[in-house]
Amino acid sequence: MSLSEFDSIHVPLEPWDIDDNGDNLLLIDPIHQRMDAQETVPQPAPAPTTDMEGDNVLRDEDNFIQNVSQFYNQESLSDILLVVGDQKYYGHKFVLAKSSEVFRTMLYDQRYIQAGLPEVELSESLECQQYFDRFLRFLYTAEININIDSAVGILCLADKYNVSSLKSLCTKYMVINTRSPKVKNALQWYSWAKALNLEDLIDQCSKTIAWNTDLILGMPEWFDMEFDFVSDLLCNSQLVVQEEYSLFKALMSWLLHDQRQEKLVENSKDLLPMIRYSQMLVKQLYEIETTAREEEYALCREVLLDLVSKAYRFRSLCPSQLDLEVSFKDMCYLPRNYITLTVDTVRMQNTLRFGIQVDVKTYVGPVPSEKREGEWKITYRKNQELWTLQIYCHESAMINGEAQIQASVVIYNEQDHVIHVDAAPSHICTRANNLSMNFHVPKPEEAKTMAVLIKPIPK
Question: What are phi and psi of 215, to 5 degrees?
């Protein structure tokens, strides 16, 4: 999938430095960072460190790095020539081996044919070839210039040659640059994060993708998404999307796209059950039922009609689930973060709301309805950057004296892009038991509005 230009705003985070044009971030190892700090801030001469035997430990980190870095790609003292594509680099086995276990084995283990050879050809992808010089320089200097375009190539080289410090720095850089609303970066790097098992990057990409689902469903690139991506998306309960029906329509467009006709039956059986039909309105279910009988849907008709039937069963049995002892705890019966469930919208800087109760309404019980007859009250409080929401349930919102809900807040910036989502665990509200929700807003200076969602859920 080809993606267009990226957001050029970068947030420096230690141990990173940023250059003047704001395009590249300079990643540095902690040892090099300490060296730079000593150069920029006048410091008194450090007292020698004394060990238990009374000996003093003296350090010369800056000269050590400088002495090593001067040999980068220099023929002087070189004992190995690295061939990467049509480029050749002078190397020094000790420098390569000290930073990379892969190079150590390759160059010193006599069981490998490369050991002892004066010239070694490395097989790299075109993307990695393009940035191999930056990768190699890092082994000598402990620093690297990186940007959105070069991040994947450098990360793959760090992973292939097991340079853990560089891999960690790349991952941190990519995590920062996939925070919402940087959706295109998250889309571009998600598959790489999974392939390399980078949990922090997977988590951040997943959040950004989930919070911007409506935007992604409207992209031309949606039709080019891989099966695994679509499957992961549909499994995610934290999607911020207008409603489940819009997610269903986007999935059908993906399934029926010309390039997937050969796998329509297989894909339908795997993906259509991931849609939460229980969270649709009756008129939407009827629309699906009617449409499924058209010729275009013949290959997935049986699957669709069966799923719609299960949704009707949920709507029929759920109001009496206690009497019938029926359980609806599966994920397919739980709502996502639907914008249609917004009960209140707050301007983040509007202090007039603090301490005042606001009356809101939801539908009654866990079966979705257009009727909003369940009454609630919300109180907003803020202590520095800590927000507290108190949600109180009225009798009209209860069934058998209680209402089980999940509550979420969706934070938007000035451009109405989602920048943060917070959620409270499911809670049973009664007249004597309200829901208290505490959360911090990252980068409060960017927060414009907050949407509060109350989601009735089944037991």
Answer: -65, -45
pLDDT for position 89: 98
The backbone torsions φ and ψ at residue 359, rounded to the nearest 5 degrees and listed phi first, read -85, 130
Question: Among positive and negative, which fits the CA dihedral 370, 374, 380, 385?
Answer: negative
CA torsion through residues 285, 287, 293, 297, sign: negative
* Rounded Cα gap, residues 229 and 407, in angstroms: 27
> pLDDT band at residue 53, thresholds of 50, 70 and 90?
low
Characterize 234-251 residue by residue with b for buried, 16 or more Cβ atoms within 10 angstroms of its Cβ, and e for exposed.
Answer: beeeebbbebbbbbbbbb
Q: Give the dihedral sign, CA 455/411/4/156.
A: negative
pLDDT at 17: 45
Question: How far apart, in Å, are the Cα atoms of 186 and each of 140, 213, 233?
Answer: 31, 12, 13
| DSSP-assigned beta bridge partners for residue 321 | none
DSSP state of 256: T
Q: By C-alpha distance, which of 382, 400, 383, 245 is closest to 319?
A: 400
Domains contained in the chain, CATH given: 16-177 (3.30.710.10), 243-332 (no CATH), 338-456 (2.60.210.10)
Strands (E), 293-385: 337-338, 342-347, 357-362, 374-383
pLDDT digits (tens, 9 = 90+) for 258-289: 989 999 999 999 999 999 999 999 999 999 99
Task: Tell me the C-alpha distance between 196 and 157, whole Å.
Answer: 12
Percent of the chain with pLDDT over 90: 78
- State pTM to two decimals: 0.87
